[in-house]
Each structure stands twice: as C-alpha cells, then as structure tokens.
Specification:
This protein has 103 residues and is mainly β. It has one helix spanning 93-98, and strands at residues 11-14, 17-29, 35-40, 46-50, 68-72, 77-92. Strands 1, 2, 3, 4, 5 and 6 form a six-stranded antiparallel beta sheet that branches.
Length: 103
Amino acid sequence: VLKFFDKITISILHRTSFLQVYEGEVVLETEPEETFSLYAIDERTKITSKGLKYRLENDSLPFGERESTSNVAKKNKVKLKIENGRIFVIRDYEILRQNGFLQ
C-alpha cells in the first residue's frame, strides 16, 4: 500500500484513534495541548518539528525503538518536515471531528 502513497490518502480509524500517513512538509491544525503520537516507518526517516512541546530536530523515530508518543501541541498549528520517508501521526478522532480538522 505504501508504494501507492502518492496516489492515495491513507487514514485509519480505530475506536478513538485516527491514524494518517504524511511525507514532506506538513502543517497540522491542532488544538493547544492536544496530545498525539508520531512514528517513523523507516529508521532513515528524519523529522523536524515546530510547535510541539517536545521538539524534534532532524530526529529519527524508528518504529518499535523510539517513538514520539504523547507529544503535545503548543499552539493551533504544528509544522513537520519529514525527510527520507513517511511517518504515522496518531491523533484523537473526537478532537479532529469537533474542530473540523478531518481532511
């Protein structure tokens, strides 16, 4: 499925969690103090963030080894720069729905 990423949008809803896959430069609309998690698919993927409580600076977050679970948005937008791959972002579905953040 991931090889077709440039042709489709991948989103998964499981109970209260909403997972989306991102690559490149992304700006997420967020609620201040919203908690979400970031997971890299490949250890070579590097992530830089702005607007997170626990800032990432060209960090690798290999799945199962190091994750950015329970990171927190400081303001209404979080900027992510993803290099050399894709990441999973898991957020609370109800927060997304209530604020019109679903794409």
